[in-house]
Amino acid sequence: MDVPREGAARKRLIKRIVLGGIALAVIAGVSLGLSRLKPAAPHVERSVVWMDTVKRGPMVREVRGLGSLVPEQILWIPAASDGRVEKTPMLAGAVVRADTVLVVLSNPELELAALDAEYAVKGAEARYKDLQLQMESQRLTQEADLVKLQSDYRQAKLRAERDNQLAAAGLMIDLDRQISVAAAEQLDNRQQVEKRRLDMSSRSIDAQLAVLRADIDKLRALAQLKRDQVAALQVRAGVAGVLQEVSVQVGQRVGPGFILAKVVQPERLKAELKIPETQAKDLQIGQQAVIDTRNGFIPGRVSRIDPSVREGNVTVDVRLEGALPQGARPDLSVDGTIELERLDDVVYVGRPAFGQPSSTLSLFRFDPESKEASRVSVKLGRASVSTIEVVEGLRTGDQVILSDMTQYDSVNRIRIR
């Protein structure tokens, strides 16, 4: 027979309460311990990050830009007059001399105008010769009249002298003597006037002939201009070089000043680089540069800096000072590096992604012993193409990750494996 036990239910309840309390305490303790644990650092493969060691010593500041080789001098050949393209004997890339014909134009109106100008010159020359003959005949007539007056004067003078002698001897009345003297004086005055007329006539003839000569010279210049324009229908290179471009086609009508072709001298090239505007503030004329043509390196110096900014870039011309490598030609793509300055003793490291001069950013500093990298704040200074000065935050010998780590912005530690 079962005997009921007093207080058994109460003991079981107390036991359950105690066990529940112990379980709750254990759970709370575990939760507190877990909350105090550091979160696990994400793992990053070493092969996918770029690391560099902080160094101290000399650093060369440089800027780099892409560009191309361009001729120092480009000869743009325009059309001198209207015309229709008849032939283009030379193709782009051909080596040309100064007298090489590049384009042949035709202009019948211009050729007719040149012919009219030639005949105008011949007509003016004929009129000049005719006037010259007329004036010469007129002058000869005046000279003949003057000679006759001079002869009459000499005869009258002799008669006057004779009559003076007769009158002095009492053989002629004084009135006849006076008449002879007056006639001689009159002829003397007439010959003096005729001499002045002959002199004025000669000067008048010279003036009229000078006017005609000026007209002839004008017509000759016009005719020469027309001849030159006709000759210019055969467009020549003008200089020795390489024909880089022919910008017209057969049958095309062109006007004065229209660019027909472009000739360059390939042995006289310069590099035209595009430098980002953020890196161009320290550029100066005369700085040393090195141009990489993918087939060799050419030293040079900065010869011009464009004062304006186009599409975020500053155009910089570099005068080449070395021999051109084989294959160098206009429009060849090149990569140029310009040396800004040399710093003797600075702390520097490879330039990180998004690392700008005089800025502060966070980098992961790697600890070789723990194989972990912790985030540190680094103040940067002056920058070069591939290196940048460290002002604060790192010491010589520190290893830092320079790769783009924006995907780990939410963590302060990573583990390298």
Question: What report would you give on this structure?
Answer:
The chain is of the alpha+beta class and 417 residues long. It has three domains: 46-70 and 269-416, Elongation Factor Tu (Ef-tu), domain 3, CATH 2.40.30; 74-107 and 233-264, OB fold (Dihydrolipoamide Acetyltransferase, E2P), CATH 2.40.50.100; 108-231. Helices cover 36% and strands 33% of the residues. The strands form three sheets. Strands 3-12-15-14-13-16 form a six-stranded antiparallel beta barrel. Strand 14 and strand 15 form a beta hairpin. Helix 2 runs antiparallel to helix 3. The mean pLDDT is 83.
Question: What is the H level of CATH, i.e. the homologous superfamily of the largest domain?
Answer: Efflux pump adaptor protein, beta barrel domain
Largest sheet: 6 strands, antiparallel, barrel
Rg: 53 Å
- What count of structural domains? 3
Oligomer: single chain
The CATH architecture of the largest domain comes to Beta Barrel
How large is the count of helical segments? 3
> Based on CA inertia axes, which overall geometry fits?
rod-shaped
Please report the distance between the alpha carbons of the first and last residues.
74 Å
Mean pLDDT comes to 83
CATH-defined fold name of the largest domain: Elongation Factor Tu (Ef-tu), domain 3
- Secondary structure: helix percent: 25-40%
What proportion of the residues form beta strands (DSSP E)?
25-35%
Strands ordered across the widest β-sheet: 3-12-15-14-13-16
Unreliable sequence segments: none
Number of E strands: 21
CATH domain class name of the largest domain:
Mainly Beta
Structural class: alpha+beta
> Helix and strand string, N-terminal first?
HEEEEEEEHHEEEEEEEEEEEEEE
